[in-house]
Amino acid sequence: MGRVAGLAGVSVRTLHHYDEIGLVRPSARTAAGYRAYSAGDVERLREVLAYRRLGFGLREVAELVGDPSTDAVAHLRRLRGLLLERRDRADAMVAAIDTELEARAKGLKVTPEEQLEMLGTRLYDAIGGAYTATRRTDPRIAAQIWDALGDARTVLNVGAGTGSYEPADRDVTAVEPSAVMREQRPAGSAPCVAATAESLPFEDRSFDVAMAVSTVHHWEDPAAGLREMRRVARRVVVLTFDTDEPGWQARFWLTRVYLPEFATVLAGFPSLAGMADAIGARAEPVPVPWDCADGLFEAYWRRPRAYLEEHVRRAVSVWTRVGPQAEQRAVRSLSDDLDSGRWAEDNSHLADLDAADLGLRLLIA
Q: Record's Pfam families (predicted)?
């Protein structure tokens, strides 16, 4: 027991307590009669300690590790998802701290309420919570995605978020690692599994088709996630972004003139050709309607004043990732150009367009 305690970084007293309450009981004895841990005991102890270090109470941990339907691999996948969610929360807190530091450097007063909102539990909820206000299914984009699904009856939606673009006439299973997103899924929506794209908890060829909509750029390892989709489904449909085309950063006025940092955000993003090769897919353009109902990054290309709205920007991860300094500079510059008429003059050719090709691509395999 002492050796296990040393390896695990806990006290012998802690292990005795776990034994007393039946959480982790050593199942073996040495020749001298001392408690000894089998490989299975150590595996269970690892799960218990991991959940404890993520903040779970002993009663919650007992329920988690005592679930007979969950094996060691499932626990690892769950733990990985929880850790990724914690990382996202930490990233959001860093962005909030940067915002407050910049405000203080300018001599601006930060109220107690703002301080608590920046660093409290509401921070990540506010960022993720903006999705339901602006991120809705656009029927024209949906029609293109659903047409690509073909006659599939069983559909896996990977990185499902709040459930946009899930077809109501199919048997859908959703996968989403973020609890904030899962909690915002509407009543009656498809069942949602807490897992990541890179480690899907399903058998080979479990679904007719696996779909992923505007999520690949959030994945830790996009290539691995795409391979997993190909493994668990007979066909794959992915809405993503094309960075292969020369000068792709310049095709959208927002990134060309006001937010060049967008290129940095996608610096490590895999090429469209590479993603297509990974799943054996063809690519087709997805035009963005001028009145797009889905408030994705490119949605307001003909409605520029929308980008001045805080709640619009908060529902798009790009703004958080470029940082508050770049965001505020872009918003100020765009606001000035809208007020002066310069934006209208520079972009007068957009006024008669019903849709624009801004790099969205549908990979169909």
A: MerR_1 (PF13411), Methyltransf_11 (PF08241)
**CB count, 10 Å around CB of 167?**
16
Enter the DSSP assignment of 214: S
How many whole angstroms separate alpha carbon 81 and alpha carbon 199? 10
Contacts of 351 (CB under 8 A, 6+ apart): 302
Cα–Cα distance measured from residue 157 to residue 151, given in angstroms and rounded to the nearest whole number:
16
Contacts of 171 (CB under 8 A, 6+ apart): 153, 154, 155
Give residue 122's pLDDT.
45
Q: How far apart are CA 311 and CA 337, in angstroms?
A: 21
pLDDT in tens, 107-153: 887 776 666 555 544 444 445 555 556 778 899 999 999 999 999 99
pLDDT at position 148 is: 97
**What pLDDT, in 10s, does the model give residues 183-225?**
888 888 899 999 999 999 999 999 999 999 999 988 888 999 9
DSSP state string for 220-240: S-HHHHHHHHHHHEEEEEEEE
Between CA 150 and CA 109 the distance in angstroms is 56
- Sequence-distant (6+) residues with CB within 8 A of 182 are 176, 192, 194
